[in-house]
Design goal:
Elements (H helix, E strand, L loop, with lengths): L6 E7 L5 E8 L2 E2 L1 E6 L5 E8 L2 E2 L1 E6 L5 E8 L2 E2 L1 E6 L5 E8 L2 E3 L1 E7 L14 E6 L1
Antiparallel strand pairs: 1-2, 2-3, 2-4, 4-5, 5-6, 5-7, 7-8, 8-9, 8-10, 10-11, 11-12, 13-14
């Protein structure tokens, strides 16, 4: 006997009548496109769920319509680039994720004193500028 999928569409509205949330559930788990709006009608979040987990592209916007966040999910974990902008549209964060963990990126590295061997090395000082 095959199991049938029960699909339920779900919508919520603000008191002003604007759509607040639109999603669907399959067998009790969020599944499909998920959208959330600000009370002024501007799209706030657009992503996809697969059997209760975020999967694929995730985008969100400020109330003024400018992009806020752009990233990607694999099995509910951030994967790849995560970018975040302020309300004026200025990019202020760019992080790379691997399986939900931040991968640091080293932009500039200077070795103050070059040791002859790392096993017998005198103390040395790294100057690192790290962008995470």
């Amino acid at each position: 006997m095959s199991k049938t999928n029960t699909v339920k569409e779900h919508k919520e509205y603000y008191a002003n009548g604007n759509l607040r949330l639109q999603t669907s559930y399959t067998n009790g788990k969020r599944h499909g496109i998920f959208k959330l709006w600000h009370d002024n009608g501007q799209l706030f979040v657009n992503t996809t769920y697969v059997q209760g987990n975020k999967q694929g592209e995730f985008k969100s916007w400020h109330k003024n319509g400018n992009i806020m966040v752009e990233t990607n999910y694999v099995d509910n974990l951030r994967q790849g680039e995560y970018k975040e902008w302020d309300e004026d549209g200025q990019l202020y964060m760019n992080i790379t994720y691997a399986k939900g963990y931040i991968k640091p990126r080293y932009v500039k590295r200077k070795l103050q004193e070059q040791p002859k061997s790392f096993l017998n090395a005198p103390s040395f000082n790294y100057n690192l500028n790290i962008i995470v």
